[in-house]
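Late entry, written up from scratch paper. The run itself happened at the end of the previous shift, but nothing got recorded in the book at the time, so transcribing now.
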Amino acid sequence: MAHVLVIGGSRGIGLEAVRQALEAGHRVRVLARTARRIPVRHPNLETMAGDALDPVTLRRALDGVDAVILALGIAAGPGMVLRPVTLFSRATRLLLPAMREAGVPRLICVTGFGAGDSRDRGGCLHRLAFAVFLKRAYDDKDIQEQLIRDSDREWVIARPGILTDGRRTGRYRVMVEPETWRLGTISRADVADFLVRQIDQDRYIGTTPALAG
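Output as recorded:
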């Protein structure tokens, strides 16, 4: 079993990934500003409260781990629309060289349907939502994805569609080829299921699959 660092594991997809990685028998370390507040207790769980944009904290968090699940998120609100978003790219610029220095080979990252070359695949309503609400965040996710693509790590970038709070089903589509990409809904629990499976599987290394239920 692996020792996994989850960055952004205090809520949403990241918290689901923490739960499922522990269930799968992995040792888990969580790095998040509110890591000590997460509602999970387990002998194989270590929480580390800190900022993913702090290089010293990152180096400590990466010590002894085998893989990283990067599940950063930002709160929805006016700031996401009105101000530039740089969290995703800034964190990734720091993380990749830190992983190399620490000898951590694998990065499993979640962005979203509409990032990178999936931007125009969601239809008219999806494009309108991007133009009004999501463009700044996804412009930064585009940079993040390119940084990961250009790196020398073993990477997988998951692009889930519209997220729900449904249960984990294990029944979802993993669409690797661009001609198969379709926007759909998927539970955060099922996204986490995919992320955790990539800890010790190689099938999707170097790909950017879209996920939908």
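The domain at 3-212 is CATH 3.40.50.720 (Rossmann fold).
(Scratch paper discarded after transcription.)
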